[in-house]
Design a protein that fits this description.
- The structure holds two protein chains of two kinds.
- Chain A is mostly helical.
- Chain A has helices at about 15-35, 35-50, 50-65, 70-95, 105-120, 135-150, 160-180, 185, 210-230, 235-245, 245-250, 255-280, 290-305, 310-325, 330-350, 350-375, 390-395, 405-425, 430-450, 455-470; strands spanning about 120, 130, 190-195, 200, 205, 285.
- Chain A has 20 helices and six strands.
- In chain A, the strands form three sheets. Chain A has a two-stranded antiparallel sheet with strand order 1-2.
- In chain A, helix 3 (about 50-65) packs antiparallel against helix 9, helix 4 (about 70-95) packs antiparallel against helix 12 (about 255-280) and helix 6 (about 135-150) crosses helix 12.
- Mean pLDDT of chain A is about 85; it is low at about 5-20.
- By secondary structure, chain B is of the alpha/beta class.
- Chain B has a six-stranded mixed beta sheet with strand order 6-7-8-3-9-10, sandwiched between helices.
- In chain B, helix 3 packs parallel to helix 6 and helix 7 runs parallel beside helix 8.
- The relative contact order of chain B is 0.17.
- Classes of the chains: A mainly alpha, B alpha/beta.
- At the A-B interface, helix 1, helix 9, helix 10, helix 11 and helix 12 of A face helix 2, helix 3, helix 4, helix 5 and helix 7 of B.
Amino acid sequence: MSIDTPPPPASPQPAGPQVGADEWVARQQQRREYLPGGFGQMQRAIDGVGWWPRLAAAAVAGLALPLIGLGGFQLQVGIDALVVALLAIGLNIVVGWAGLLDLGYVAFFGFGAYGFALLSSSQIGRHGIHLPAIASLPIVMIAAAALGLIVGWPSRRLFGDYLAIVTLFFGEAFVAFTNNVAPSKLGGPNGIINVDPINSFGHSVTSNEGYYYLLVVLVVGTMAVLRLLETSRTGRAWRAVREDSLAAGAMTIPVNRVKLMAFAFGAMVAALAGTIFAAQQISVFPTDFDTPFLIVIYAGLILGGAGSIAGAATGALVVMVIYDGLLRSPTDSAYLFYGMILLTMVVKLRPWRRLYLILAATAAFGFAAHSIAAAISPSAVAGGSQSTGWIADALRDWVIVPANPQTIGNWGFVLLICLLIALVQIKGAWRTVLLVPTIYLASFVWETRLVAEPAITRQIMIGAILIVMMNARPQGLLGARRVETPQ
Amino acid sequence: MTVPQDSVPPLLELNSLSLAFGGLLALSEIDLRIGDREIVSLIGPNGAGKTTVFNVITGVYRPSDGDVRFAGHSIVGRPPHRVAQLGIARTFQSLRLFLNMSVIENVMAATYGHTRATPPESILRLPWARREERQVRALAEDVLSFFGQRLAGYRWDQPAYSLSYANRRRLEIARALATNPKLLLLDEPAAGMNPAETREVTELIARLRDERGVAICVIEHDMHVVAGCSDRVVALDHGVKVAEGDFDEVANDPAVVEAYLGRDPEALAGP
């Protein structure tokens, strides 16, 4: 085997125009990330501002919100939403940055709540332990970090679904533990009641306003701390491990230690949220820390965009305000339901005349169906809309609500699912035609069944929002676009 | 070039290194020495065990027999990040960049083992943490500038996935340089490149040695690159070292020709 004379060295590349063209192409991708027109300019302007003025503006907005007069219920929704926001920010460390699918995360929240409850109540000893918050908060957070290391240690070599199943087991084990172990101390299913409020130096937070302000400060403070950590060597190491742990190891990053650090930091933030939760509720119960709540935290993180601190907080606030705030009252949830349908149509249906056509056809279809049903049997339209206000007036002569809607509503729901599947499969003009009865049927099912079952409807709505979101914007509200990395 | 035989130990030394996966002998009694600022090419057909040698050196696999000595000390059994910290950096045949991180973050991440700031220090932005961060940034800009216009400044804050294939290969080398290596293991740096880019890779390897002072072990199938840059060539076949010497010696070695092309049928038929 031989080889020709080595080829001549490369001629120097002419600099300038080529690189310029290259750069233009590279920047084109960035330009495409922005919306066209005025919104895009607004995005650019916001992106031009540093992170801390934006965070400060959000903090001021959060602190000013009660001044416009939040009622007791709205304030409670705000508190719950902020607790979940804090949890989502912590989960973002583990899932968004280190890429570890941790399904036992809610147990650290529970650990924080139970830890604070034990240190701030009469459960232990004759007179109980009543530490001030300034002492108990650090103790609980450090203990949670240690627990994170203990849980992370045996599973440090796992990732993906293996890690998910191990951590899920841990989460379930926590609930079983609090339910069954040492009922005289942990209270079993009855939990711990009469937990002290957050108190230090003779002051204590007793009002809901107080907890709201405290939570705004804690959420904003945690966001700032984590933002500083994200851009440090630790943050880079977390993301490097997420992207490719083998390459990270070859680039001097101790993969296992970095994973454990992510677990510990996530656990600390979750425990902090737990302490405030326990103090504000004045009690803790095992069921507060079960898997359904974990799903809400994940929904917030995914909706907002895993990997982004602001995204995690925003997503959690949006999910909780929808889930806990709007979907409890029939009227509010009706606004949300019809508003979402209308918004989706406005965004998705082009050209405009197609949108107008479908809206007019749906309206006509509804009035026709209603009058036919009324002519056949008055009892078929005897039921009223559950919502109140103008939306109920508008729907009175449009949507059919029978006097006894349960059975027919259930069948309508099944039919609606079939129609939705058909709608996805069919292309062209028939899709437009099919859209009209589908929208009408959706309203029918909403008015007859969904609105009467808020507990189930909330889950369905969150699921629907997530599905729509994952199709429209897979990276989440504020997340950065990501490519899949081979493992 | 002859193998240095003086009392100073070579930078890297593999002593009858063997690796078995169950009954399959992937490497069999490999001896290899790489001196300071030496460029050694590792050639051989697919499946010869070239990448496996890299994986054993960097601690991904533990050898079943034999020793790996770096700068006079055995490094067998050390985890990959420790080996990298000692000064052995590598690139990957199938690119393994941190695709969703920015170009400069890819490089900055590789300084983890040589920096000290703890999370609390980073959060508080203490003076030494800030100084360290500035040094990391300066080092990253320095190694990226090594590639001139190819990884020019406007690309630094773009995600790594936006880079072209050839630029991804360059970024992998830049990332490896950021670990401050004494020995650089390049796994097929010219794979998938066009002839002009291949020539550039050949020059780049020489420049890495001359300007960065690193010893280089390069796995390469492109014989232009091998001929253009190697001080010494080592040929592997089926996990066995079959030839070693300068390029012409190895290229004309019957065992190497046989490994690549099979035995000459006329010679087989024989008189």
